[in-house]
Design goal:
It contains three helices and 14 strands. With 262 residues, the protein is mainly beta. The chain has one domain: Porin (Beta Barrel), CATH 2.40.160.210.
C-alpha cells in the first residue's frame, strides 16, 4: 500500500511541471486508477496558483493509459473576481493520458437553498464490521469498502445501481478536496452489475464532479458512494453519481461516461 500523501511528497517540481511515479499498487489494468490521476492533477493545480478558493467543479477526460513515470502540468486559464479556471494535463511515455479543467470558487450569498438528493443508506460500518480490501497489486488494496444491498428504508438497489461505503487506508496529511477526488471514483460502473460478476474490460471516458461544500469532512474516513446507470447500450453507459459524508451531508454529485466492452 502506497498512501497518496507519500506519492505527492515524492513529486519533483521543474520548469516543465511536476514529475512523479505512479506505483504499481495504484494501477487499474494498464492505467492508473482514475481517482488517483484526478487527485494528482488537482494537487498540481493547487500548487500552481496561490490562494485558490475551494474547488467547485472538475471536468475530466481519461484520454489514454498512464503508468510509471508521469509529468503533470497545470495552467491557469482564467482567474476572475469570483472564479478561477485551471487546466491540468498528465503525460506519460505513451503521450497525453489525462486532462482536467478545475473550477475554484468561494461560497456566494444566495436566497436559494434547495437540496433534492436524499440520504440513501444506513450509518457507516461499525468498528467490528466485516470490510473488503482488494489485493495489494490492484488499486482497491488502498481502500476499505463495504457494499450495501438496500437503501436506508430497506428497498433493494436497482439492477444498475451501486451503493458503497469507502475510505482510504493510510490517509496521511491529505488535502480534503484531493481526498474526495481520490475516493469518488471508487465504484465500478453501475451497469457492470448487470454482467452478473462476469469479467469485461471497461474504460472511463469522461467524468464531471461538482463539489457542494468548501470544507468536505467526515468521521473515521468514511464516504458513501452512489452510482446509478440511466443508459447502457451499444457499449456505452451514462451514470449519475453522488457522495455523502458519515453524517448524511451531501458532499458532491457527478456524472460519468463509461465504455463497457461486453
Amino acid at each position: 500500500m502506497t498512501p497518496i500523501a507519500r506519492i505527492l511528497a515524492g513529486a519533483v517540481a521543474g520548469e516543465d511541471g511536476l514529475r512523479l511515479t505512479i506505483p504499481s499498487d495504484w494501477m487499474q489494468g494498464r492505467t492508473s486508477y482514475g481517482g488517483l490521476s484526478s487527485a494528482i492533477a488537482l494537487h498540481a493545480a493547487q500548487a500552481a496558483e496561490p490562494d485558490l478558493p475551494p474547488l467547485r467543479s472538475a471536468q475530466i477526460s481519461f484520454i489514454g493509459p498512464l503508468a510509471g513515470d508521469v509529468r503533470i502540468t497545470a495552467t491557469k486559464l482564467r482567474r476572475g473576481r469570483n472564479a478561477a479556471f485551471m487546466q491540468s494535463d498528465i503525460v506519460s511515455e505513451a503521450g497525453l493520458g489525462f486532462r482536467a479543467t478545475f473550477v475554484f470558487m468561494a461560497d456566494q450569498q444566495s436566497q436559494i437553498d434547495y437540496v433534492d438528493q436524499p440520504y440513501v443508506a444506513p450509518p457507516p460500518p461499525a468498528p467490528d464490521a466485516k470490510l473488503y480490501t482488494g489485493p495489494e497489486e490492484f488499486f482497491t488494496g488502498n481502500f476499505n469498502f463495504r457494499d450495501l444491498k438496500t437503501h436506508a428504508d430497506g428497498t433493494p438497489l436497482g439492477k444498475a445501481e451501486w451503493l458503497r461505503w469507502a475510505r482510504l487506508r493510510g490517509l496521511g496529511a491529505l488535502d480534503p478536496m484531493v481526498e474526495i477526488m481520490a475516493v469518488a471514483d471508487g465504484l465500478p460502473p453501475a451497469a457492470f452489475k448487470m454482467l452478473d460478476n462476469r469479467f469485461a474490460p471497461i474504460s472511463s471516458l469522461t467524468w464531471i464532479v461538482n463539489l457542494l461544500t468548501p470544507t468536505p469532512k467526515t468521521k473515521d474516513g468514511w464516504w458513501l458512494l452512489s452510482a446509478r446507470s440511466n443508459y447502457a447500450r451499444n457499449g456505452c453507459s451514462s451514470q449519475d453519481m453522488a457522495i455523502w459524508n458519515a453524517d448524511g451531508e451531501l458532499i458532491a454529485t457527478g456524472m460519468q461516461s463509461v465504455a463497457i466492452f461486453a
